[in-house]
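REQUEST FORM: STRUCTURE PREDICTION
Request ID: SP-0412
Submitted by: Lab K.M.
Chain count: 1
Length (residues): 686
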Amino acid sequence: MFKKILIANRGEIACRVIKTAKKMGIATVAIYSDADRNALHVAMADEAVHIGPAPANQSYIVIDKVMQAIRDTGAEAVHPGYGFLSENPKFAQALEAAGVAFIGPPVGAIEAMGDKITSKKLAQEAGVSTVPGHMGLIADADEAVKIATEIGYPVMIKASAGGGGKGMRIAWDDDEAREGFQSSKNEAANSFGDDRIFIEKFVTQPRHIEIQVLADNHGNCIYLGERECSIQRRNQKVIEEAPSPFLDAETRRAMGEQSVALAKAVGYSSAGTVEFIVDGDRNFYFLEMNTRLQVEHPVTELITGVDLVEQMIRVASGETLPMTQDDVTLTGWAMESRLYAEDPYRGFLPSIGRLTRYRPPAEVAAGPMQTAGKWLPQPSGQDAPSGDSATRNDTGVYEGGEISMYYDPMIAKLCTWGADRGAAIEGMRLALDRFEVEGIGHNLPFLSAVMDHPKFVSGDITTAFIAEEYPDGFNGVALPGDALRRIAAAAAAMNRVAEIRRTRISGRMDNHERHVGDDWVVTLQGADFVVRVEADQGGSTVHFEDGAPLRVEAAWTPGDQLAVLDVGGAPLVLKVGKISGGFRLRTRGADLKVHVRTPRQAELARLMPEKVAPDTSRMLLCPMPGLVVKINVEVGDEVQEGQPLCTVEAMKMENILRAERKCVVSKVNAAAGDSLAVDEVIMEFE
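STATUS: Completed
RESULT:
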C-alpha cells in the first residue's frame, strides 16, 4: 500500500480524498493556487505545495507544475479527483513515465472512453445503442449549423473533453447553434485546455441515469447500482439520488451488465461511470463514460456501504476487489443536493465573497454507513448513529473563507439517507433548513423548493424539470396556508420571548410579565393572523382568532440565528434574522418578512405607504461578479428584444446578457477585459 499520495485537485473533492487516505493511514499532499492559499484542503493535508496563480490554466491543469510537486514531496501515487486533469491522458502518461501510480484507469481506457467522440464510436462498434449525432470534429460555426440542421433540432453541442456542465449548450435553431458553438468552444478551452466540439441529437423528455462501475487489474468488474441525475440546470446536475425511482430490476440489471461489458472491452480498472439517457418506456441510450470519480458518488456509497475512494486506492496499488456482484446490495435511499455559490433570485448567476456564516447540519451515520462502516469515511464530529437516517456533508470551505470567481461554484454536497425515498426526502428537507450560509448568494432556497415540489416528490421528473417548472426563473416560494399558520404561531411565541428579554434588560419593573401583552397580529406573505399567546414553563399555546390553537415548544433564545421548534407536534426549523418590528424567517425555500405587532400597531401599519424600488429599467446591470469577455454593441446602436449585448464570464461559465426589449444604446461603461462587481452598470439605454 502507498505511504503518501498527492491529490491533484482542490475544494470538497480534495477534502473527500484526504479523509479516506487518513482512515487508511496514508499521508497526503495538497496542491494550491494563490486563491487557495488558506483553503480547507490545504489545512487538512499533511503537506501542501504552491503551484501558481489563481486561474486553473496557470496552476491546477499545468502538468509540469503538478509533476514538480510530486517530485518535491516524494508522493508515490496521485488521485486526480474530478475535473482538471482527471481525464487527461497526457497527465496519466507523465505519471507512468515517472513511476508514479495513477489512482484511476489505464491510459488506454482514458483515451478510449474519456474522449466523448471516441467513446461513442467504440460504443457503436460494441453494439451499444447510442443517441444519433455527428461524431467527427467540427471546424467552425458554419459547419456546426449545417450538421445541426442535418441531425434535426434541437441538438446538444458538447465539449469532447467536457464534464460538469462545462462546454455544453442546447440549440433550437441556427442562431443558437452558431452562438452555442462559440461559447462551448471558449468554455472548453478555458476549463479543459481542449476546445474540440461535437453535436448530438437532444432527446426530449429524457431521464439522465448513470451506472457506477468498479473494476480491478485482475479482470474483475462489478456495477454498484444506478444514480438518477435528472434534476439539472444548464446541463449541470443539481440534485442526485440513488437508486432511481424510475428503473425496475430488469432494466437496472440490463444497464449494469451493459456497463460492465463496455468497461471490460476497454480494459477498464478503478471507479468509473457509464451515463445513459432513458426514455419513458425505459429504453436506454449510451451517452458517455466518465473515467473518474463522479461528483455524485456519495449517494452510491450511502446505499451500498462501499467507500469508492478507498477501492480506487486499493485497485491502484494492485489489490483485488474485495466483493463480487453477488455481494452488492442496495439498502434504503440516498439524496444529494449540491450547494452552489450562485444566486437563484438572479437567474442562478455565480456569487463570490466571504462566508460570514457557514454552519452545515450535524453529520450522522446510519444504514449502510453504520453496518459497513469499514468501507466508508466516517463523518467528523458525528452524532450517535440513529439507525434509520443519515446526514453527510462533503465540503471544501469553512466559515470566514473566501469563495473565488476562478473555480466551479459548488461548495458542498449535502446528502441524506433513509429507509425509503420519502424518508430520504424528509431528511433532506430538515437538513437544508438547518444549513446556515451567509455572506454570498446560494441556492439553498431553490433546493428546498425542489424537495417540496409535487412532481419531484412523485418521482415524475426529466432533465427538463427545472426549465419546465421554473420557466421564469426562481422567485422564491409562496407557502400554503397551513405552513404560514405554523410559522405565524412560531413567530408569535418567539416574539413573546424577545419581548420578555427586552423588558428585563430595560429594568422597568421586576415583574416583567406585566409589560408583555398576550394579543398580537402576525403579518407575513400578505396575510394577517390575529393571535393570543398563552405561555407556560414548557412553551406557548398560540390561539388563532379563526381556528384551533397550536402548541409551540422550543429552546430558542433571542439572537440565535437558527430556531429548531416543535409546532403542533411536528418539527419546524427556521433561520432567524431581526428586522424592525419582527423577524426575517427562512424555511422550505421561502424568505419571509414577518411582523409581530400589537393590534394598534397593526392598524397604523396598514396606513403606511409602500416603498418604491429605484427604476433601473434603462440600465444593464452586471448580475454577478465577473470578467467582461465581449461587448456586442456600441453607443447609438438600436437593439432588439433578445439581442446579445455582452458576455460575462464567472466561475468558468460564459453568460450572455440580452436586451429585454427594443431600445437604443446611449452609453457603454465597460470594455472587454474589465472585472465588474455585482450590479455595476455595464451600459445605459435611451
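NOTES: Residues 207-469 form a domain with the D-amino Acid Aminotransferase; Chain A, domain 1 fold (CATH 3.30.470.20).
Reviewed by: T.R.
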